[in-house]
Structures are given as structure tokens and as C-alpha cells.
Specification:
about 260 residues, seven-stranded parallel β-sheet, about 15% strand
Length: about 260
């Protein structure tokens, strides 16, 4: 069943991981998808793969911290695909591993810019096009760390994801009677390249981290990007027509502990 036939979606950070899986799922549901990312080679490959399977897809470079690039991405999506009905704010960076007293201002600013300000800019610049849709949906990818203290580290990541959670609700109230629904998705530990990145280059520390996250996940495994994409597809569809300002946790039971 193509629940999103005739809809146009813009997805950030769609060159890999959750963003790629979301693009593939929304396309399978019938949406035309605009892949955006800063990884141009991988992003073009995702769009090309969808096109080869008969789906309508295109790619645009988008650094979500740039207001000018957001404006160009929205205009490009409307111009190439004919409108905008679905916005998925997914672009991300891995959280800094230090506790608050050891986190540098540069690391703090970087995380806030991508994870928080990027979501704000996306909703700001997409709003005019979404308001013309009549059945628009914004899905902001937050995290279980947007609602919990996690391991007591990565303060900027937690702060940004928590801000996305509340920003989602604020926008949902603003647009509740204007045809735009806004919801947040809160993944747990998902098997993506970002999760497996090891910025410190220490395999032993990486192994301990991965065991720790399995230990605190009641289902005892990592989630799959496709499982998050399924939740996004539901929120983007008319089946969620009475759902706005809500939080969807896809976390293997992490938040139930």
C-alpha cells in the first residue's frame, strides 16, 4: 500500500543510516523524495538507486547549519518535485564523549548547530511550502537522550536532542489548526555508521561502549534503521492524522527501565 502517493518529502542526513532507510521507506510508500546531505557522493548514490527502482528521487547538497542552503534546498525541492509535504529533520553528529566539565565550547557549539539549530532552520524555511500542502507532516529525529541523562556524558548532544523534543511541541501547537503536524521520533541505540564511529581510535573503548549500550537495552540488541524508518512513515502518513506534538520511542525498551 502506497500511503504517501503524491507526497513530496525532504530528508536531511539521508546519505546513510536512519536517513537513508527513511528515504527508501518513504519512496516505497509512494513519496517523491529529496535526498539531502553533506556527503554528496553517497547522497547521489542513494537517489540514483531509488531512481533505478522506478521511484522519483533527487539529491541536493545541504549543510543544515546554513540558512542559505536551507532556503535553496526548499526552493530546489519545490522546483524539482513540485511541492513539499513531508520534512524529516534527521541530520546528526555523534555526541562528544566527555562529561560537562571536560566538554570544549567548540564541541558544544558544533553539536548544538547541527542537532538543534539545523532543525529550527529546517522548520522555519520549509513552513511556507508545508502550509500549502494541506496535509503536511514534520518528523524531527530526537533521541532517547533527549529525555534521559544517559551515561552522564555528551552534554551538548543531550541538550540539543532535548531542545528538539520541546521545539517539536511548540511548533505542533503553532500549526495544529493550519495543516502541519509535528512529531518527534526518539531512537535508542541503532545500528548505523554514526554509532560505530570511533573518534578516539581506541577499539577497546569502542567495544566497552557497545557492550554497555546492549546491557542497558532490555531487548538486548541494536535497533535497525528500517525500524525507525517505519515509525517515520507512519507519522508522515494520514494514518497519523490525529497525532501531533507526540513522541515516538523506538528504543528496544530503553525508556521503560
Amino acid at each position: 500500500m502506497e500511503r504517501l502517493a503524491g507526497r513530496v518529502a525532504l530528508i536531511t542526513g539521508a546519505a546513510s543510516g536512519i536517513g537513508k532507510a527513511t528515504a527508501e521507506r518513504l519512496a516505497a510508500e509512494g513519496a517523491a523524495v529529496m535526498i539531502t546531505d553533506v556527503d554528496d557522493e553517497s547522497g547521489k548514490a542513494v537517489a540514483g538507486g531509488l531512481s533505478a527502482r522506478g521511484r522519483e528521487a533527487a539529491y541536493l547538497h545541504l549543510d543544515v547549519v546554513s540558512e542559505q542552503e536551507w532556503q535553496q534546498a526548499v526552493e530546489g525541492t519545490v522546483g524539482q518535485l513540485g511541492g513539499l509535504d513531508i520534512l524529516v529533520n534527521n541530520a546528526g553528529v555523534r555526541g562528544e564523549p566527555e562529561p560537562v566539565e571536560e566538554t570544549s565550547l567548540a564541541d558544544w557549539d558544533r553539536s548544538i548547530a547541527v542537532l538543534q539549530t539545523g532543525v529550527f532552520l529546517g522548520m522555519k524555511w520549509a513552513a511556507p511550502a508545508l502550509l500549502k500542502s494541506g496535509h503536511a507532516s514534520v518528523v524531527n529525529i530526537s533521541s532517547v537522550f533527549g529525555s534521559s541523562g544517559g551515561f552522564g556524558t555528551s552534554p551538548a548532544y543531550h541538550a540539543a536532542k532535548g531542545a528538539v523534543r520541546i521545539l517539536t511541541k511548540t511548533a505542533a501547537l503553532r500549526w495544529a489548526k493550519r495543516g502541519i503536524r509535528v512529531n518527534s521520533v526518539h531512537p535508542g541505540f541503532i545500528d548505523t555508521p554514526l554509532l560505530h564511529a570511533d573518534p578516539a581510535g581506541n577499539p577497546a573503548d569502542s567495544a566497552r561502549f557497545h557492550q554497555a549500550i546492549l546491557d542497558v537495552t532490555p531487548m538486548g540488541r541494536l535497533g535497525r534503521p528500517e525500524e525507525v524508518a517505519a515509525g517515520v512513515a507512519y507519522l508522515a502518513s494520514d494514518e497519523a492524522a490525529f497525532v501531533t506534538g507526540s513522541e515516538l520511542y523506538i528504543d528496544g525498551g530503553y525508556m521503560a527501565r
